[in-house]
Amino acid sequence: MTAIDPSLRTTRTTCPYCGVGCGVLATPDGKGGAAISGDGEHPANRGRLCSKGSALGETLALESRLLHPMIRCKGVMERVAWSDALDHVAHRLQHIIARDGANAVAFYLSGQMLTEDYYVANKLMKGFVGTANVDTNSRLCMASSVAGHRRAFGADTVPGTYEDLDTADLLVLVGSNAAWCHPVLFQRMLANKQSRGARIVVVDPRRTDTSEDADLFLGVRPGTDTALFAGLLVHLADNGALDRGYIENHTQGFDAALARARGMAGSAAATALATGLSEADVAAFFEMFRQTERVVTLYSQGVNQSAQGTDKVNAILNCHLATARIGKVGAGPFSLTGQPNAMGGREVGGLANQLAAHMGFTPPEIDRVRRFWQAPRIATHEGLKAVQMFEAIGRGEIKALWVIGTNPVVSLPDADAVRAALAKLELFVVSENVRSNDTVNSGAHVLLPAQAWGEKSGTVTNSERRISRQRAFLPSPGEARPDWWILSEVGKRLGFKAAFDYGSAADVFREHARLSAFENDGARDFDIGALAQLSDEAFDRMAPVQWPMREGVENSPRFFAKGGFFTADRKARFVAPDIPALRSETHAGRPLRLNTGRVRDQWHTMTRTGLSPRLGQHLPEPYVEIHPDDAARFGVTDDSFARVTTDHGHCILKVVLSPRQQRGMLFAPIHWNDEMASHARVGALVSAFTDPFSGQPEAKATPVSITPYEYVFRGFALSRRLLKLPDNVWWVRAAITGGYGYLFADNADLARWPAWFKAMSGDDVAEYRDFGGGVFRAASFAEGHIDACLFLGPAHDAGDWEVVKALFAKEQLGDDERRMLLSGRASEGLANSGPIVCACFGVGRTAICDAIAAGARSAAEIGARLKAGTNCGSCIPEMKRLIAEAGVSSTSKQAVAAR
Q: Is this prediction's pTM over 0.70?
């Protein structure tokens, strides 16, 4: 295990969020926290961090942590010794395997695991238990990219690097809201646009913040990306833009792919008809691409999370292969990965359709890995992918499941069915660093405390194949242990001691590197054999490195400029995609489609970002976004509530009207869950249709209906402790400075609230009651500050959430502040900053609007005055909209004055 330097020096580590893989400088404060800043020497981010990375220091507290092993006994979780927990897990696994066979057990892993953890889990199951029922939440993120790469290249190879974003002349973003989800990389693209004149095209059904800086926005109909790029391939062929030499020497299948494309979208007009775009916009895009040698096409969840995701990927790859715009400086296709180590998981074989080290389940590959691992029971065929795995659990075919570092009851589609399936397991083990989440609370039998970011040590790989170190800078709390250690101890107890006798993460990494080079000789893309002999000290010091890292060979940072693919004949394959068709149809009962995704300052299921007061301020409530025309059609209004219903479940969400939303579509974020909100687990609404090649579920097009939902009262409560609100209340919880904030709505009698508040309060209480007006406000004080407070009223008459939060954050209230508190309004000397726009520096909308009113006319000028937008830049599009709105307002006032 990695020792912690008692001098509390700054440690270079890597961010635990998205696949950009930003370097982080963490300096412990000696009190369990740390100061966080970007690492200016890391090539991925060059010192920048997004709002989430910047707030990592706010997520290190131990209040919600799982610190000891626990086993369910007579329905109650009880603390046990590590040896007892490990013995129990091993014994139950042995029993189930002996009775029902190896395929009756499964692992469900996470793209947040370190490579070393992933490697041991994969080796244990596929090599020694003898089943490939090992899958990961990366199946929900980038499996279609993996499948598309393997179909075209013969391997899951990302051809380019981040430097290509700096040197491209055309950047095409497909299904990627990079401004919010990969803001550090998006800022590099914008810097290229500003300094070199690069153009940006955004392809997306939603007009996201990424589109604000686009030279061309293509608002395609859902699921029609394949048709767009099929039309592009035809255009390239018909206008002399093909590289015939490259096609002839380095590829196969072009004629069939082109013929299929002609049948799907044989002209700009046909492409426009297939995608819902204007012919002029289609023609403009085609010409941009045709005329630009240096073009990078970046794609993310809008492409991947689709029942046609693999075909979408291959339609994009076809265009780059046909023009030889691949593996060259500033040119190539680029999959933007959503998780910090989804790439590392792909490297070790963490997906059910991979074996190990970018090898699959062909007989020679099985034999090679069997000999390397000395594993006579090695799995010989692919396992069940995520959605199919949980369906098999529901049917009773899988009896034991071990979930590590992920929350499938929130993130998987048809999530209520997932929860019901878990209740049928004979053995349900969860390795986690939090003691409560939706998955843990779905009947886990064993809880194993894992180290969290800041405590664990190992490696991760980012979207450009760059391996970086995550290093420990905090001591391991309680009895938390590394995942690789937990898995190894179970492996030993299953009888495989020699195979799992690791003493450190470095031991695991060296074995992983040796396997990558074993009988390779350039036949496989993934090779880090040059790192296989690293000493422990060299592993601790290891700087970020990009693979391949072949021993004794000069390694290129890019792939495929001169061919050299990883198929049997070393030629790429053009793929003829199917005509795009969504798997489900809208109808009178479900007239709209539901698109799901992320918001700027939250990530996955909020087990980490939900701890940060800073990150909870921008969008504190779960919402559904709808076009104003659809809102009028279905009778919902802005800032009201609506019931959003699919064939699988329903949510009650706040309504946001936005003309940037496509008509006929709704958008709802994925993050909220039953730990953080009462009616907002959006995964329960999503259909479980999957891509036939990748197994990735379609999260972007579920048929849905929306109806108004009325609440008489709205309010909020702030407390130093977690609260249990009365029954039948709509609520959402957010971290605030000093405690917890709850926004809620209610239809019950107002009279129940005073008794509820009194039960949680001390003796020093102030109240304001106007039951006739529907208003109740109360505050409890302790040691000069607010201990808890409650504001309740009709519609928007409850009080000012931002003002009261600011007073709650104070360690001591002045007499005037105490007297003014129950007014719920700003007093002199306490300005209302408004909702946070810039999370990095805590700048609110009021301050930005004041700066605009004072003469700031650009995001740069606002940044100079307030620092807003000067770190990750993800708030810049919103600031630009506020500037535009102020300009419109000013023009309107001038017009009125002139009349």
A: yes
